[in-house]
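Our collaborator T.R. sent over the components below with a one-line note: 'Predict the complex.' Nothing else. No constraints on interfaces, no templates requested, no preferences about which chain binds where. So this is a plain run: every listed entity goes in together, and whatever single assembly comes back becomes the starting point for the next discussion.
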Amino acid sequence: MPQLGVSVVEGTVIRWLVGVGDDVAADQPLCEVDTDKIVTDIPSPAAGTLAELLVHEGETVEVGATLARISKTGRSGSHVDHERPEFHSPVVQRLAAEHGVDLGGVPGTGRGGRISKQDVLAAVEKPLHTESPYRAEAPAGQLSRMRRAIGAHMKRSLETAATCTTWMECDMARVEQSRRGAKASSLLGVTPLPIVARAAMDVLGEHPALNATLEGERYTRHEAVHLGVAVSLGEDGLIVPVIRDAHALTVEELGVAIRELAKRARKQQLSPDEVGGGTFTVTNPGQFGSLMATPVINQPQVAILDLEAVVKRAIVIEDADGNDVIEIRPQTILGLSWDHRALDGAQAAQFLGALRRRLERWDG
Amino acid sequence: MPTMTYLEAIADALREQLRADPRVFVLGEDVGAFGGAFKVTDGFVEEFGEERVIDTPLAEAAIVGAAVGAAVVGMRPVCEMQFADFVACGFDQLVNVAGKTHYRFGLAVPLVVRLPSGGGFSGGPFHSQNPEAWFMHAPGIKVLAPSTAEDAKGLLTAAIRDPNPVVFLEHKHLYRRVKGEVPEGIYETPMSARVVREGTDLTVIAYGAMVHAALEASAPEALDGASVEILDLRSLVPLDTQAILASVAKTSKALIVDEANETCAAGAQVAALIAEHAFEQLDGPVRRVATPDVPIPFSPPLEQAVLPSVERIRDACRDLLDY
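Returned assembly:
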């Protein structure tokens, strides 16, 4: 409130002529003030942006009181002066480009935190520990939204569950025989996944403790199997679409469902409903030749089945006469990561054993 | 080496050239019997006679016009304006005749016009100007502005020996205030810039009296030990582009100080040069300190308010150093 006359000690703001966020010029009228003698405009003492009105219309304040705050930096808010400017001087930009310096990691010592030429040169001479050692190979960038989501989910799972993994060898001769027979109809994919999934559905019916979710201390067994299938999207990441009521589907129907979901997942056409609500998950790193990959449980489920590569091995089996013979057979390793909070190792092994027997005697 | 004032060094150069080259003569108002308004040619008429130290009427157009004619026929005239301000009366002869004769007729015009310039002594609007930019804008004329006694002698010698018309700005404020060792005998100072003080954090570009103001303003003890480079242009035409750009490349910050009125002054040309050719070297805005676009007031406080002061230059230095 300026001193509007020698004897004036206070004034009443009648009307504001500008609002917060408005750009104001020097000497532009800001408000009308009644000093019980006259009504007069109060000119702006500076150019800038009106950041704050401190006196309401109708309010009477003493001479010297602050009526409003004007930000000279052109943006409203009281912290604007401390904001780090995004502008970099020409020499800073040039030096950063020449030396491959990521200016985001350079502390600024200039006015208002500005990065000065000296700051860049200091960063060139003494590379910051926070910088990636691979910056020469690839421009620095942030993780994609999907990678961040996967990362957060995986970390949460490992931090939440008491994850154990059980492995079991499995002879896949019958499964492979069945796949070869089915290829003519081309209903199945290139991997034994639909058959293994179908077998797992049957075994889950016998071991319902694994078709369950555990949220906090709330452990829920589910009647229906909503089967999550991990689908790789290449470098972009991974997504786990869910086949509803998978227990009710045939091998062929599972094969079609897996193929369709994978296709739509890669086209980013999945709806949110199709990626949630799973009760059990299967992952298939074997399609890429993996022999043993420890799966991470898809929270809040309690187990995840892992299908590895089918490879030919020389193994010892018993022939019809009860003699041990060495035979060349297609083998795989079945893995199961399970949550020791909800299950014990015996249940996991029993589940895998039952699945193994079912696959070794597959007659599809 | 003898110590001389800036004024004595100018007189020394003139005397030596008058002695060495019979084509050289001086002309101007009161240069003879009175020895010049500032006594630069004191004693000259006694040594060289009235034919070589010519008192003229109060007519600058006649002084410059006569010099152009003499130069065209092979003489080396050195004109004195009592005050640089008065050269406006000889402007046509200098800009339209002297500056263009080589281009129109292929004839050399080796003349020098000495311009006692600058303010700081309550000389008022007619006796304080810095008109160098008028001539920078006129093709065909060289423009020199020394800041030290040694350079004053060497540059005036070079100017007299130069085949082109040369405008020689001698700052009145420096006449008797600036002293220094000056080599004996004839020597030429190159028409290029000089690094007065080396520095790494900021370049201050100045000429004439402002070199001294810049030196005082940017003393390390006055600026928390900052390392400020001072570049004395010495010659405005030709302008030492290379030295300017080299210094800015080193420091990445430039402050240009000139005593002339701000608009279209020599400093504006330097600023434009830096903006165009050193953009990617800059770590701050190109700043200028100059005299506002007003005539120089008589009133001592008002004159001190408009001329670039040590304080204003120092504030600008600080602002750029902190940027």
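Summary for T.R.: The first strand of chain B starts at residue 3 and ends at 5.
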